[in-house]
Design a protein that fits this description.
- GO terms for molecular function: DNA binding; DNA-binding transcription factor activity.
- It is a single chain.
- With 253 residues, the protein is of the alpha+beta class.
- The protein folds into two domains: 5-73, Winged helix-like DNA-binding domain superfamily/Winged helix DNA-binding domain (Arc Repressor Mutant, subunit A); 79-249, Beta-Lactamase.
- It is built from nine helices and eight strands.
- The chain has helices at residues 5-18, 26-33, 37-49, 66-77, 80-96, 138-144, 149-155, 173-186, 228-249; strands spanning 53-56, 61-64, 99-106, 109-116, 131-133, 189-192, 199-207, 213-222.
- The chain has a six-stranded antiparallel β-sheet. A two-stranded antiparallel ribbon has the order 1-2.
- β3 (99-106) and β4 (109-116) form a beta hairpin.
- The radius of gyration is 21 Å and the shape is elongated.
- The termini are close together.
Protein backbone atom coordinates (compact mmCIF):
# COMPACT_ATOMS: atom_id res chain seq x y z
CA UNK A 1 0.00 0.00 0.00
CA UNK A 2 1.27 3.47 -0.86
CA UNK A 3 2.51 5.78 1.90
CA UNK A 4 1.33 8.73 -0.21
CA UNK A 5 -2.28 7.90 -1.13
CA UNK A 6 -3.05 11.29 -2.70
CA UNK A 7 -0.07 11.01 -5.04
CA UNK A 8 -0.96 7.39 -5.86
CA UNK A 9 -4.56 8.33 -6.64
CA UNK A 10 -3.45 11.22 -8.86
CA UNK A 11 -1.27 8.82 -10.83
CA UNK A 12 -4.16 6.34 -11.00
CA UNK A 13 -6.29 9.06 -12.59
CA UNK A 14 -3.60 9.91 -15.16
CA UNK A 15 -3.03 6.26 -16.03
CA UNK A 16 -6.77 5.76 -16.36
CA UNK A 17 -7.07 8.70 -18.76
CA UNK A 18 -4.07 7.48 -20.77
CA UNK A 19 -5.85 4.18 -21.46
CA UNK A 20 -8.98 5.85 -22.85
CA UNK A 21 -9.37 6.74 -26.52
CA UNK A 22 -11.70 9.64 -25.66
CA UNK A 23 -12.17 12.03 -22.71
CA UNK A 24 -14.38 10.59 -19.96
CA UNK A 25 -16.76 11.96 -17.29
CA UNK A 26 -15.51 12.33 -13.73
CA UNK A 27 -18.21 9.94 -12.53
CA UNK A 28 -16.85 7.11 -14.68
CA UNK A 29 -13.32 7.77 -13.40
CA UNK A 30 -14.57 7.52 -9.81
CA UNK A 31 -16.52 4.34 -10.59
CA UNK A 32 -13.70 2.60 -12.46
CA UNK A 33 -11.08 3.47 -9.85
CA UNK A 34 -13.32 2.85 -6.86
CA UNK A 35 -12.74 6.33 -5.45
CA UNK A 36 -15.21 8.80 -3.91
CA UNK A 37 -16.48 11.34 -6.43
CA UNK A 38 -15.43 14.21 -4.17
CA UNK A 39 -11.85 12.92 -4.14
CA UNK A 40 -11.80 12.50 -7.91
CA UNK A 41 -13.11 16.02 -8.48
CA UNK A 42 -10.44 17.39 -6.16
CA UNK A 43 -7.70 15.44 -7.95
CA UNK A 44 -8.96 16.57 -11.35
CA UNK A 45 -9.00 20.19 -10.20
CA UNK A 46 -5.37 20.00 -9.07
CA UNK A 47 -4.24 18.14 -12.20
CA UNK A 48 -6.13 20.57 -14.41
CA UNK A 49 -4.48 23.50 -12.67
CA UNK A 50 -1.05 22.02 -13.41
CA UNK A 51 -1.91 21.27 -17.04
CA UNK A 52 -1.91 17.48 -16.76
CA UNK A 53 -5.65 17.23 -17.36
CA UNK A 54 -7.89 19.08 -19.83
CA UNK A 55 -11.49 19.82 -18.83
CA UNK A 56 -13.93 19.80 -21.74
CA UNK A 57 -16.53 21.97 -20.06
CA UNK A 58 -19.37 21.63 -22.58
CA UNK A 59 -18.95 17.86 -22.71
CA UNK A 60 -18.39 17.51 -18.95
CA UNK A 61 -15.47 15.24 -19.66
CA UNK A 62 -11.78 15.08 -18.81
CA UNK A 63 -8.75 14.02 -20.84
CA UNK A 64 -4.98 14.29 -20.69
CA UNK A 65 -3.50 17.80 -20.84
CA UNK A 66 -0.50 19.31 -22.57
CA UNK A 67 1.74 18.87 -19.52
CA UNK A 68 1.29 15.10 -19.80
CA UNK A 69 2.47 15.30 -23.41
CA UNK A 70 5.46 17.42 -22.40
CA UNK A 71 6.33 14.88 -19.72
CA UNK A 72 6.23 12.09 -22.28
CA UNK A 73 8.39 14.12 -24.66
CA UNK A 74 10.94 14.72 -21.91
CA UNK A 75 11.00 10.97 -21.26
CA UNK A 76 11.87 10.38 -24.91
CA UNK A 77 14.58 13.07 -24.91
CA UNK A 78 16.34 11.43 -21.99
CA UNK A 79 16.53 8.13 -23.93
CA UNK A 80 15.70 6.13 -20.79
CA UNK A 81 15.40 2.76 -22.49
CA UNK A 82 18.98 2.72 -23.71
CA UNK A 83 20.35 4.28 -20.52
CA UNK A 84 18.61 1.77 -18.27
CA UNK A 85 19.47 -1.19 -20.50
CA UNK A 86 23.18 -0.42 -20.93
CA UNK A 87 24.58 -1.94 -17.72
CA UNK A 88 22.44 -5.13 -17.83
CA UNK A 89 23.35 -5.58 -21.51
CA UNK A 90 27.05 -5.29 -20.74
CA UNK A 91 26.71 -7.93 -18.04
CA UNK A 92 24.88 -10.22 -20.46
CA UNK A 93 27.69 -9.93 -23.02
CA UNK A 94 30.31 -10.57 -20.33
CA UNK A 95 28.42 -13.67 -19.21
CA UNK A 96 27.77 -15.25 -22.60
CA UNK A 97 30.63 -13.92 -24.74
CA UNK A 98 28.27 -13.10 -27.61
CA UNK A 99 27.13 -9.87 -29.25
CA UNK A 100 23.85 -8.51 -27.90
CA UNK A 101 21.54 -5.75 -29.07
CA UNK A 102 18.55 -3.86 -27.73
CA UNK A 103 15.78 -2.67 -30.05
CA UNK A 104 12.31 -1.14 -30.05
CA UNK A 105 9.40 -1.56 -32.44
CA UNK A 106 8.42 1.30 -34.75
CA UNK A 107 5.58 0.26 -37.03
CA UNK A 108 6.83 -2.66 -39.11
CA UNK A 109 10.47 -1.89 -38.31
CA UNK A 110 12.78 -2.43 -35.40
CA UNK A 111 15.17 0.36 -34.43
CA UNK A 112 18.37 -0.63 -32.68
CA UNK A 113 19.06 1.54 -29.64
CA UNK A 114 22.04 -0.25 -28.17
CA UNK A 115 24.64 -2.78 -29.22
CA UNK A 116 27.20 -4.46 -26.98
CA UNK A 117 29.93 -6.40 -28.74
CA UNK A 118 32.00 -9.29 -27.44
CA UNK A 119 35.62 -9.84 -28.41
CA UNK A 120 36.17 -12.17 -31.33
CA UNK A 121 32.54 -12.16 -32.47
CA UNK A 122 31.40 -11.36 -36.03
CA UNK A 123 30.48 -7.82 -37.06
CA UNK A 124 26.73 -7.22 -37.19
CA UNK A 125 24.50 -4.93 -39.26
CA UNK A 126 22.62 -3.85 -36.13
CA UNK A 127 24.47 -0.63 -35.35
CA UNK A 128 22.66 1.94 -33.22
CA UNK A 129 20.01 3.71 -35.30
CA UNK A 130 19.73 0.99 -37.95
CA UNK A 131 16.19 0.00 -38.97
CA UNK A 132 15.30 -3.50 -40.17
CA UNK A 133 11.99 -5.22 -41.02
CA UNK A 134 10.53 -6.51 -37.76
CA UNK A 135 9.17 -9.75 -39.21
CA UNK A 136 12.67 -10.79 -40.31
CA UNK A 137 14.52 -10.18 -37.04
CA UNK A 138 14.46 -12.14 -33.81
CA UNK A 139 13.96 -8.89 -31.88
CA UNK A 140 11.01 -7.89 -34.05
CA UNK A 141 9.34 -11.29 -33.87
CA UNK A 142 9.76 -11.33 -30.08
CA UNK A 143 7.91 -8.01 -29.81
CA UNK A 144 5.28 -8.84 -32.44
CA UNK A 145 4.49 -12.06 -30.57
CA UNK A 146 3.47 -9.97 -27.54
CA UNK A 147 1.06 -7.75 -29.51
CA UNK A 148 -2.69 -8.39 -29.89
CA UNK A 149 -3.63 -10.23 -33.08
CA UNK A 150 -5.64 -7.23 -34.29
CA UNK A 151 -2.58 -4.99 -34.07
CA UNK A 152 -0.43 -7.47 -35.96
CA UNK A 153 -3.09 -7.68 -38.67
CA UNK A 154 -3.18 -3.87 -38.92
CA UNK A 155 0.60 -3.76 -39.33
CA UNK A 156 0.57 -6.44 -42.05
CA UNK A 157 -2.65 -5.91 -44.05
CA UNK A 158 -1.45 -7.65 -47.23
CA UNK A 159 1.51 -9.40 -48.84
CA UNK A 160 3.13 -6.11 -49.87
CA UNK A 161 3.99 -5.52 -46.20
CA UNK A 162 6.31 -8.55 -46.16
CA UNK A 163 9.58 -7.25 -47.58
CA UNK A 164 12.28 -9.85 -48.10
CA UNK A 165 16.01 -10.05 -47.41
CA UNK A 166 18.06 -12.89 -48.90
CA UNK A 167 14.76 -14.39 -50.08
CA UNK A 168 13.83 -15.69 -46.64
CA UNK A 169 11.24 -14.89 -43.98
CA UNK A 170 7.43 -14.99 -43.87
CA UNK A 171 5.56 -13.88 -46.98
CA UNK A 172 2.01 -13.75 -45.62
CA UNK A 173 0.06 -13.02 -42.46
CA UNK A 174 -0.67 -16.73 -42.05
CA UNK A 175 3.05 -17.56 -42.11
CA UNK A 176 3.81 -14.76 -39.66
CA UNK A 177 1.05 -15.89 -37.30
CA UNK A 178 2.53 -19.38 -37.28
CA UNK A 179 5.95 -17.99 -36.37
CA UNK A 180 4.47 -15.81 -33.63
CA UNK A 181 2.52 -18.73 -32.17
CA UNK A 182 5.69 -20.83 -32.03
CA UNK A 183 7.55 -17.91 -30.45
CA UNK A 184 4.94 -17.60 -27.70
CA UNK A 185 5.06 -21.35 -27.09
CA UNK A 186 8.87 -21.39 -26.92
CA UNK A 187 9.10 -18.21 -24.85
CA UNK A 188 11.67 -16.70 -27.22
CA UNK A 189 12.13 -15.82 -30.89
CA UNK A 190 14.78 -17.29 -33.16
CA UNK A 191 16.16 -16.19 -36.51
CA UNK A 192 18.59 -18.25 -38.58
CA UNK A 193 20.37 -16.51 -41.45
CA UNK A 194 17.43 -14.27 -42.36
CA UNK A 195 19.33 -11.04 -41.72
CA UNK A 196 22.91 -12.22 -42.22
CA UNK A 197 23.75 -15.65 -43.67
CA UNK A 198 25.53 -18.01 -41.25
CA UNK A 199 24.45 -15.99 -38.20
CA UNK A 200 21.63 -16.88 -35.82
CA UNK A 201 19.88 -14.81 -33.15
CA UNK A 202 17.59 -15.49 -30.23
CA UNK A 203 15.48 -12.75 -28.62
CA UNK A 204 13.01 -12.14 -25.82
CA UNK A 205 10.75 -9.12 -25.26
CA UNK A 206 11.07 -6.61 -22.44
CA UNK A 207 7.49 -5.97 -21.34
CA UNK A 208 5.74 -3.49 -19.08
CA UNK A 209 3.42 -4.41 -16.20
CA UNK A 210 0.52 -4.88 -18.63
CA UNK A 211 2.52 -7.25 -20.84
CA UNK A 212 3.04 -4.72 -23.64
CA UNK A 213 6.43 -5.03 -25.37
CA UNK A 214 8.66 -2.03 -24.67
CA UNK A 215 11.73 -3.44 -26.39
CA UNK A 216 13.56 -6.69 -27.05
CA UNK A 217 16.98 -8.12 -26.31
CA UNK A 218 18.69 -10.33 -28.87
CA UNK A 219 21.92 -12.31 -28.76
CA UNK A 220 23.66 -13.26 -32.01
CA UNK A 221 26.10 -16.08 -32.69
CA UNK A 222 27.49 -18.06 -35.59
CA UNK A 223 24.96 -20.63 -36.75
CA UNK A 224 27.57 -23.38 -36.44
CA UNK A 225 27.81 -22.60 -32.71
CA UNK A 226 24.04 -22.72 -32.12
CA UNK A 227 23.80 -26.12 -30.46
CA UNK A 228 20.54 -26.78 -28.57
CA UNK A 229 22.38 -26.71 -25.24
CA UNK A 230 24.12 -23.41 -25.95
CA UNK A 231 20.95 -21.80 -27.29
CA UNK A 232 19.07 -22.88 -24.15
CA UNK A 233 21.78 -21.27 -22.01
CA UNK A 234 21.62 -18.04 -24.02
CA UNK A 235 17.83 -17.94 -23.77
CA UNK A 236 17.97 -18.34 -20.00
CA UNK A 237 20.53 -15.55 -19.60
CA UNK A 238 18.64 -13.27 -22.00
CA UNK A 239 15.36 -13.82 -20.17
CA UNK A 240 17.03 -12.91 -16.88
CA UNK A 241 18.42 -9.73 -18.43
CA UNK A 242 15.02 -8.81 -19.90
CA UNK A 243 13.39 -9.31 -16.51
CA UNK A 244 16.04 -7.11 -14.88
CA UNK A 245 15.47 -4.29 -17.38
CA UNK A 246 11.68 -4.62 -17.07
CA UNK A 247 11.94 -4.23 -13.29
CA UNK A 248 14.06 -1.11 -13.71
CA UNK A 249 11.60 0.40 -16.20
CA UNK A 250 8.40 -0.58 -14.38
CA UNK A 251 9.12 -1.25 -10.71
CA UNK A 252 6.45 -3.08 -8.75
CA UNK A 253 4.09 -0.77 -6.95
Amino acid sequence: MSNAPAAAHALDVLEHLSRRAEPVPAASIARDLGLPRSSVYHLLKVLHGRGYVTHYVEERRFGLGSAAYELGSAYQRQAPLARIARAPMRRLVDQCGRNAHFATLDGRDVIYLLEERAAGQPTLVTDVGVRLPAHLTASGVAMLSALPATQVRALYPDRSAFVQRHGTGPRSLAELRSILARTRADGHAREDGTITPELSSIAVPVSDRAGRPLAAIAVTLRSEDASPEHVAELVERTRATAADIARRLSPTR
